[in-house]
Amino acid sequence: MPIHIRIAKNGPYEVSGDLAELDLKDSNGHAYDVAHQKRVALCRCGASTTKPFCDGQHSKIGFQAAEAAVKAEDD
């Protein structure tokens, strides 16, 4: 099963699929074990106290973000 990433409206990146295949590490190389989970939500607003995971702070701070992918302009 492939890994899927969905951007929640004004919320986190929702990652699902075969998370045993996901290599999730912080900037120091510390690995997060998410293999036993079916889905994780990764913080996108920067306010979570459980980074890199979402703790719902986006709704408390009124986080708003662009939702659609922006098509690159041809050179």
CATH-level-2 architecture: 3-Layer(aba) Sandwich
Spans where pLDDT lies below 50 across 5 or more residues = none
The CATH topology name reads Ribosomal Protein L9, domain 1
How many alpha or pi helices? 1
- CATH H level, superfamily name: CDGSH iron-sulfur domain, mitoNEET-type
Distance between the termini: 36 Å
Structural domains: how many: 1
CATH top level class name: Alpha Beta
Main sheet record = 3 strands, antiparallel
Helix content: under 10%
Q: What integer is the average pLDDT?
A: 92
Walk across the major sheet and give the strand order.
Answer: 1-2-3
> What structural category characterises the helix and strand content?
mainly beta
The fraction of residues assigned to DSSP E strands is 15-25%
- Judging from the principal axes of the Cα atoms, what is the shape? globular
Architecture overview:
It is a single chain. The model has no long low-confidence stretch (mean pLDDT 92). The protein is mainly β. It is built from one helix and three strands.
